[in-house]
Design a protein that fits this description.
Helix content is 38%, strand content 14%. By secondary structure, the protein is of the alpha+beta class. The chain has a domain at 2-9 and 22-57. The protein is globular, with a radius of gyration of 12 Å.
């Protein structure tokens, strides 16, 4: 998923991977959580969801 974010932001995107317990997966952009696995039925994001997240990152960079 990080490569998707890099593809829209290049050097303007910083990705931090922080170890967690029990399959924690969160995507936080400018302090706002845009994805939290625990709030999405503990499902890893599917392709369409990754595209949605990518669009959110792209919009944040444009705005």
């Amino acid at each position: 998923m990080a490569t998707e974010f890099y593809s829209v932001g290049g050097g303007d995107v910083a990705v931090t991977v922080t170890p967690g317990d029990a399959g924690v997966l969160q995507v936080i952009v400018d302090g706002d959580t845009i994805y939290d696995k625990s709030q999405e039925d503990n499902q890893t994001p599917h392709l369409n969801r990754v595209k949605e997240l990518k669009a959110i990152v792209q919009a944040r960079l444009a705005g």
